[in-house]
Amino acid sequence: MTTMELNLRKTDLFSMINSMDEEDVTMVEKFIKRLRTAKREVSYPWNPTGEELHSCVREAREDVLYGRCISDEDLTEEMKAW
Prior knowledge:
Elements: H1 3-18, H2 22-37, H3 50-65, H4 72-80
């Protein structure tokens, strides 16, 4: 991408932001701050491959099978103590 193309994209982005209401500007501002502080090697949002997704599901099923989880009722009670 050339410098001119990048500057054009920035100008377009500024125009979009300029037309937003205060609530939308606040949301964009928060997103940009998170984006700048996030590690670059982590893609956002998380986009798992099929195998990564299957692995997560397998792990969750094993957690339930071996009792490495907490019930909704127990979690609600625990949260009341926070």
